[in-house]
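Changelog note: in this version the structure field was regenerated for every chain. One regenerated record is shown below for reference.
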Amino acid sequence: MKKEEQLQNTINNISILNDLLSEKLCLLDAKTMDIPKNDEITKLFNAVILLSEKIDDEIQTVTGGDD
């Protein structure tokens, strides 16, 4: 049972960090709206969004989609 609790805690922590990542990305996007975005910045934003989505998918897979 202890390993299951550790796994659940890890999943919860990753989920919280992923939510914070998404929140910070939104804030950063809002702050940089007036700055013309070059290709590198756009690629960085897209990479972070994809990473966040992949983390969500992995959490759903591990938890069986009941999150």
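Spot check on this record: The mean pLDDT is 84. The longest helix spans residues 2-31.
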